Amino acid sequence: MSDSDASGEHERDESDSKPDTESRPTSAAARRERRGTARPAGKSEARPGSTRPSGKAGDKVAKPAPDAKGAPTPKRDQKPKKASVFARIVRFIREVWAELRKVIWPNRKQMVTYTAVVLVFVVFMVALVSGLDLGFKQLVGLVFG
């Protein structure tokens, strides 16, 4: 160790040791480039002075969730209180009304077109079933006489 090392002249501040590329990317292109140059997961090399254990690629360390309110966790055997019958009916009607607002209603021209398509399809199916019924009736008459 030289005298200059002992004096601490060559020590760098933590903010100086990280290059600008280590900062969080601000654009999508920068994020893609950073992902492309990043080391693949699971192939990490042991860094000297690192105390972190090396795990498998998919291992994640679970962190305890911060307790914002400081309240105890509710017990599992406690059932949530049911709302009154009237409150549930009102909630149901509100939810139905909200869903009906999401519906795209057809205009008159579309409605006429859809109705005509349905009627033509129903007439076709009635004719098909009637024709098959008549055909089977004739077939049974010929076979069993």
From TrEMBL:
It comes from the Bacteria. InterPro entries: SecE_bac, SecE_sf, Translocase_SecE/Sec61-g. It is a single-pass membrane protein. Residues 7-23 have a biased composition (Basic and acidic residues). Gene3D superfamilies: Preprotein translocase secy subunit (1.20.5.1030). Keywords: Cell membrane, Membrane, Protein transport, Translocation, Transmembrane, Transmembrane helix, Transport. Residues 1-82 are annotated as: Disordered. NCBIfam families: secE_bact (TIGR00964). PANTHER family: PROTEIN TRANSLOCASE SUBUNIT SECE (PTHR33910). Belongs to the SecE/SEC61-gamma family. HAMAP family: SecE. This is Protein translocase subunit SecE. The lineage of its organism: Bacteria, Bacillati, Actinomycetota, Actinomycetes, Pseudonocardiales. The gene is secE.
